[in-house]
Amino acid sequence: xxxxxxxxxxxxxxxxxxxxxxxxxxxxxxxxxxxxxxxxxxxxxxxxxxxxxxxxxxxxxxxxxxxxxxxxxxxxxxxxxxxxxxxxxxxxxxxxxxxxxxxxxxxxxxxxxxxxxxxxxxxxxxxxxxxxxxxxxxxxxxxxxxxxxxxxxxxxxxxxxxxxxxxxxxxxxxxxxxxxxxxxxxxxxxxxxxxxxxxxxxxxxxxxxxxxxxxxxxxxxxxxxxxxxxxxxxxxxxxxxxxxxxxxxxxxxxxxxxxxxxxxxxxxxxxxxxxxxxxxxxxxxxxxxxxxxxxxxxxxxxxxxxxxxxxxxxxxxxxxxxxxxxxxxxxxxxxxxxxxxxxxxxxxxxxxxxxxxxxxxx
Length: 362
Description:
single chain; Dihydrodipicolinate Reductase, domain 2; 2 domains; six-stranded parallel sheet; 12 helices; globular; disordered C terminus
């Protein structure tokens, strides 16, 4: 398929606006429609972004009316599973905003739905698509096997809306970006985690907006995430500030364009120019290529399970005060997924799995 993909977007909120602009700027796709429970909000989003397309109150209406080649799912996390499963079983591949689902069990349902339907479900872990991150990964590789990787993240955004009411806004909605990047940088998966989360007295969030998590990865390396979403002043990048320590020295990334290292006993500082397609534009490019040539993208739902498992494990560790085993967490999530009311084809696929099969290569 060389013509532009006809794409339907579901969700027209704040992130929906960003996606509409990205779709409009791409020569690889053509916007075929926008669905939102609030049809007037969908129309307003189209006006604001200068796009033109049919609107509807549900995905089902547009699937029947325009027969799209793909769906971009930008609904709230609680709606991700229903929207993605509907599209997959209508024969349409899906690019979905992160996190894949509110729970690991629901994400396993999505992975089973993708397998059962034979259609791609890709999660947009948009912060993987930085040229500086790729350069940083190469630097870490030159250090030798790292013993420690850290992320410091401090910002004070005032979003309003669903994030303000989440139990764990930082860990669930934001930390997944860093957790996913850690898996990418280390080329390994986590084994266990300890975590403490809390909400400072001045926080404008209902749930815990601050957390410190320590993951043990395969090979014994530790990854430490330390962050707050109610930290005004002296803010870090949205990607946080990173440090890796290995036998060859240390390497840093400021979360934007600057990477540095102490390789060969001499300090090095490199400014990496932005790539042609970064953030959600990078996710869209990879998705389109995967739809066209059948390759498995880095964000395929089965590959993304490991990043969501880190989130759920950190939340459970924060709530219990105990070290959480990722393998045991996956086993519980698999058992829970088998009890959920899902299509027969999805249940059959879940039942055929050994739970660890849902945590494939990065």
